[in-house]
Amino acid sequence: MSRQFGEIQGFPIGSTWSNRKELSNSGVHAPPMGGISGTAAEGSDSIVVNGGYEDDDDLGFEIIYTGAGGNDPASKAQIADQSLNQPGNAGLVTSQLEGLPVRVIRGSKGNPKFSPSSGLRYEGLFQVVDHWSQIGLSGFRIWRFKLQRINENEYQDPLTGLPQGTIRPGKKSSVVVRTIRDSEVSRAIKKLYGHHCQFCDALLPVPGGLIAQGAHIKALGKPHYGPDTTSNMMCLCPNHHAVFDAGGLYVSEDLKVRNQNGEAFGKLKIHPLHDIETEYFKYHRDLWGYCTISGSDSITSAANS
């Protein structure tokens, strides 16, 4: 059964369970014991915040979460170093790099200001925005994960029904757009190219994973209404994604990657299994007013041969 990211039908924010077995049966957080559900290959879809680690810091809209491993369940003290290779920790890294939402469940043993008085409660979707290692309170190296609530301005306290407002007034969260755009299609394209940029072939490794972005050729949403399909998607490094979206680079009819002066610095790299619709490149050129360059106007599996 594939891992499900995002909301689970039938369990809105504020849903409660008496124990971990009930929670596991619901599918909101599958592991009957572990605090992190996930793997390096898939990402982490849910976590439980229940006072299991002495270094946890639950701030409501923001959680500084301690990774898994190396603690004494009885005393909650850390007795060994943690590893980023532990499946749950590696899964949270993948969720950050891929922009995957994480379901957060709070238990009664966590920060009493934000936790239920008994049992467990679903708190909504959060985004992993950062991770790092440090020496914890007990003198061992731990991994920390910073999670922030998605759609924080729309969140209501599940006990009172009152809006909680925002701890960062005037600052809009960007994680919703990231989550929507990092679809299964995006992840498939990045995997197809091994996270190499189709413009420069760069591979950007970081501890626990690789950084790459699924770039839509014809933008999603109004007024462009591009589709979220592999034929409208490229795998790009963050720099070239940003420059392409801003019109500083484009792909000409001869499949050359060109700057705003028409100068080519290479040919678009295309995997044999990746069929890109050239109409989307034309739309992008027209959007920025670039003249066309004669050449083939169709991309096939043999385009780079």
Structure description:
The protein is α+β, with helices and mostly antiparallel strands and 305 residues long. The protein folds into two domains: 16-153, Roll (PUA domain-like), CATH 2.30.280.10; 183-288, no CATH class. Helix content is 18%, strand content 25%. It contains six helices and 15 strands. It has helices at 20-26, 87-98, 175-181, 184-192, 238-245, 278-288; strands spanning 16-17, 36-39, 43-49, 57-58, 62-66, 101-107, 120-135, 141-149, 204-206, 209-211, 213-216, 233-236, 249-251, 256-259, 264-267. Strands 1, 2, 3, 4, 5, 6, 7 and 8 form an eight-stranded mixed sheet that branches. The protein has a three-stranded antiparallel sheet with strand order 13-14-15. The longest helix is centred in the N-terminal third of the chain and has 12 residues, at 87-98. The two termini are 38 Å apart. 34% of the residues are buried. Mean pLDDT is 85; it is low at 163-182 and 294-305.
Attribute tags:
2 domains, disordered C terminus, 25% strand, alpha+beta, 8-stranded mixed β-sheet, 18% helix, elongated, single chain, 305 residues, 3-stranded antiparallel β-sheet, PUA domain-like
Give the overall pLDDT as a whole number: 85
Unreliable stretches covering 5 or more consecutive residues: 163-182, 294-305
CATH topology name of the largest domain: PUA domain-like
CATH superfamily of the largest domain: SRA-YDG
The tally of structural domains comes to 2
